[in-house]
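Worked Example 4.2. Consider the chain below.
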Amino acid sequence: MSGLTHIDETGRARMVDVSDKAVTTREAVAAGFVRMSPATLALAVSGEGRKGDVRAVAEIAGVMAAKRTSDLIPMCHPLAISKVEVRVEPAGGGLAVTARVKTTGQTGVEMEALTAVSVACLTLYDMLKAAEKGMVIEDVRLVSKTGGKSGDWTA
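Applying the procedure from the previous section yields the following structure tokens:
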């Protein structure tokens, strides 16, 4: 079926068998952006909103999400993650979110990095929605990955 690894020869969804794959160090970086007004950005950066330091809360939420990815994405393997780093930084017109996830194992951590970024962005929206409901979460994407049979990749 068109080379999709999560679809078997009859078209049914399946978890990929990684038992014969080599154990390698694997790392993935993902990014996303929450676009907002200058006033909302100033509030987020100040840490003085009614909900406290929204950036710190979003970073923690991203770490927690990376660790729970296999609970959210049906065909993801539960992984022993060795590192998760989530950063929320002000950038032109909003907050930029990046996540770096690392493991040593038989499958990659791209989904964990993407989940970390997505949940961090959603947390920012939740924490700031009282100030601005029209914020836009955009440009969630994989930036790079290393390790595994397919090797390194950079966007």
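Residues 110-128 form the longest helix (19 residues). The mean pLDDT is 90. Compare this with Example 4.1 before moving on.
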